[in-house]
Amino acid sequence: MNDQHTLSGLIAFYPTSDLERTRSFYTQLLPFQLINDQGTCLIFEVPGGGHLGFCRHMPCLDHPERVFITWVTEDVDFWYERLRSEGVTVIKKPEVNQRFMIYQALFQDCHGYTLEIQRFL
């Protein structure tokens, strides 16, 4: 395949009604770097690859908890303690999920989206 046709990344976009709260949550509580402030959208670089975008012009969801934003780490317990200690709402304490063979913890972000931190077993 020609190099100019190679895909070079991924950005997943989600609606938000509060860009400043989003900026604070994803840069102060998580190690995500804001790489582009487009005025109505913020795009964050996710360590390990990929990007998250949050946009004010998108309609907010009726059931934001149905959206899962998952990142993978070898140290689920560290991130559980870090986010819990910062007052982030815990949905599920770290535990083994036998069905998917992962070790995971679940939180709720500032939009009501479900954050999953997981390690493959």
Please give the CATH architecture of the largest domain: Roll
Count of separate structural domains: 2
What is the CATH topology assignment of the largest domain? 2,3-Dihydroxybiphenyl 1,2-Dioxygenase, domain 1
Radius of gyration: 15 Å
Q: Which structural class should the secondary elements be placed in?
A: alpha/beta
Task: Assign the CATH class of the largest domain.
Answer: Alpha Beta
Quaternary arrangement of the chains shown?
single chain
Strand order of the largest sheet: 1-4-3-2
Spatial shape: globular
| CATH homology superfamily of the largest domain | 2,3-Dihydroxybiphenyl 1,2-Dioxygenase, domain 1
Q: Can you put this structure into words, describing what you see?
A:
With 121 residues, the chain is an alpha/beta fold. It has two domains: 9-60, Signal recognition particle alu RNA binding heterodimer, srp9/1 (2-Layer Sandwich), CATH 3.30.720; 61-121, Roll (2,3-Dihydroxybiphenyl 1,2-Dioxygenase, domain 1). The protein is built from two helices and eight strands, in the order E-H-E-E-E-E-H-E-E-E. The protein has helices at 19-29, 76-85; strands spanning 11-15, 33-37, 41-45, 51-55, 68-72, 89-97, 102-108, 114-120. A four-stranded mixed sheet has the order 1-4-3-2, covered by helices on one side. Strands 5-8-7-6 form a four-stranded mixed sheet, covered by helices on one side. A hairpin with a 4-residue loop joins strand 6 (89-97) and strand 7 (102-108). The model has no long low-confidence stretch (mean pLDDT 95).
